Amino acid sequence: MNRSTKQPPRSSRMATQSIASTRSEKRVLLLVESSRAYGRGCLQGIASYLRTHPEWEAVHLERGLSENVPREVRRQPFDGVIARIENRTIEKTLAEMNVPVVDLRGMITPSGGVAFDTDPVACAEKAFEHFSERGFRHLAFCGYQGLAFSDERCAGFCDLADAQGVSVHVYESGARNDRTRLNDTIAREANGEHPEREMIQWISALPSPIGLFACNDIRGRQVLRAVQLAGRVSPEEIAVLGVDDDEVICELAHPSMSSIEPDTYRMGFEAAQTLSRLMDGEAIEEQRILIPPTRVMVRQSTDLLAVEDPEVAKAIHLIRSKAFDGISVAEVANHLAISRVTMERKFRAVLGRSPREEIERVRINQVRLLLTETNYSLSKIARMTGFSNDSYLVTAFRRHETCTPGQYRKQLKGAAAPGNASEE
Known about the structure:
Helix content is about 45%, strand content about 10%. By secondary structure, it is α/β, with parallel strands linked by helices. The strands form two sheets. The chain has a six-stranded parallel beta sheet with strand order 2-1-3-4-5-11. Helix 2 (about 35-50) packs across helix 11 (about 265-280) and helix 8 packs across helix 9 (about 215-230).
């Protein structure tokens, strides 16, 4: 077949573009897979935007992550595209459509468009904080070496650990010698489903207890399988934390796997906002926009404290169960039948913070969650988290964040705030 017959005549393409330009509504192609929780979350955010913009006609193309745009779809008139661009073939196809493109994959920035991605450093911070809170002094990272998102999360994690004087055991996968598959996410993930002898040997040699940060949930599940094959135990010896919070993957893992939840809802909503601006002819200087994750969803794979001191372990358990009831440092010490001075010294030695700071940290974490997922008033949040009033809450919150609770809620939710909960 002659190459020229594969594409519609230039006059036909010009005609379809002319038809698109005369329509009052905006016709948008959504090239986002729904097979993964990440893609579904992005689609939910886009759907939220569409509900308030009836002039948009969205065409959602069900597809796999690596599948190109079918020829029949390319011939249709579109005003813009929101996609998860996995490879250069898809990038080239979208460029040939000659419409504004917003990417939600973060690997390739479309020409003249914008790419959104989950902030890799913020993910690393969540992972480091999660393991630090649990008292881990040994850390590890396992990803897909050569994939940009994995390497960026690894670098951020190692930099944070290095700043605290902690070394990180990093798994170097054998795929580094396979240049043809190095940047193929699907192929790398599929290859990892076969037990990797190198990984099993690496896991066998890790010290314990150790907190292991996996680049995503699929890699985390593969790590947990390798932990079993190596004769190790999770979470007691090796606690594993993934990224994406894909509930199906996390619950099918053994044990069920903790994971960092990306803010895909916000990402999809803001991607739609950005595409609207691009379709209106507005120039956007920022080509890559990073969205921080929301929280760590704790499951069995990290649900423990790597604390050897039994009195500190008991104190932490008590604080976590009673912090929202307004428990005091004196009450914790009395419950353990030790002096407050002794407890203070032990906490400093084991966790690097005081009992009061631990109580406040647990409360503030819950405050962040309530600010993110509800529209509760500050007074109600204060009552729910053990603060005597909202003024004390604001003062404590500012010790942990560089803003007030109200500013934090506004920054985190932005225009995409779902407002799922009522005031009372």
